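Handout, section 4.2: multi-component inputs.
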Amino acid sequence: MTDLELELRDLAAHLDIPSARPVAGAVLTRLVRRRRRRRALFVALAAGVTALAVALAVPSSRASLLRFFHLRGAAVTIVDRLPRLGPRGPLGVPVTLDEASFRLLLPDGQRPERVYAGDGGYWLRYRGLLLFEFENGTGPEILKKAAVGTTDVENVEVDGEPGIWIGGRHALYLPGGPARASGHALIWQHGRLTLRLEAAVGRDQALAVARSVR
Amino acid sequence: MHPPGEETLVERARRGDPGAFEALVVSYQSLAFRTAFVITGDASDAEEAAQDAFVKAHRALGRFRSGRPFRPWLLTIVANEARNRRRTRGRRAALALRAADPHAPGEDPETAALASERRERLLAAVERLRDDDREVLACRYFLELSEDETAAALGIARGTVKSRTHRALERLQEELQ
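Output:
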């Protein structure tokens, strides 16, 4: 290295370059927002496809009705055999309750142990309970589930709003991701939000938790 | 040279793992900011360029070829973003030296003053160079990028980095005489 090159290296050490402000948080927030916008478009398209599928399938027979459960933001179909189920991946980016883009509903008003932004909504982790919340204003099909014929699937009501109880092992699909194994789950609408609760509890206990959110 | 596990992180990020992409952003945010700052000369522009570059890199991950180093690929995007901002502003803010620390140990005040004067003169000469000469020197000596990384950041061939560096050093020497 020549003297001039050495002097340039020395100059670099004395340049007034401000410290980089961390951008990871801002970048991830923008990515989550962007994914939600893309999902809104996907959901709008999927809503049209679903409406067509229901129109074709529902009137044909009672059996078709039993094979399709639906509410705003979610659909459950009954299949003969579950697909191959991958392990559950990370839930998303850790955030605080205050960082959520809408007010998150909390069971019994209790704060969760952890909150993650991911899959177009927010995952709230409690001891023995996992809650997923997202805005359903753009239509159905953000969340998709499949359950084998032996799994107990039924329509329920939570404070006058529709819900679906899935008792037993089933596959959970989130847009863009592989099928994940899931245990008992309750999905229900709450105004413009759709919530999904997963816990090793029975139907009545799950409904009690769902009614306690505020 | 890239940190261990980077290939795994990139693969996981491509499959949609936000934690893996966050780890990549954290690893490279400082380099991205410094690169953008050397090109724009403005901290706000550099921060925005770094942010936009990471968002665009995430979008383009599907086109990233497996097994290739991530760092030069990212630098290309960062440098493009920074140059776009510089073009929008119409000019680049000049780089400056940090204020001397009067309590710095080791040097006597007179030696320190002479060194500082020499650096001021060198920086002024660098600033008088053409953009392409100044940028290649900034990449190689201020950011200490390799020839391959400099080629990626400036969008030129590796051989051009060598010849341009040589030419820029000669012109700098002339400026100093």
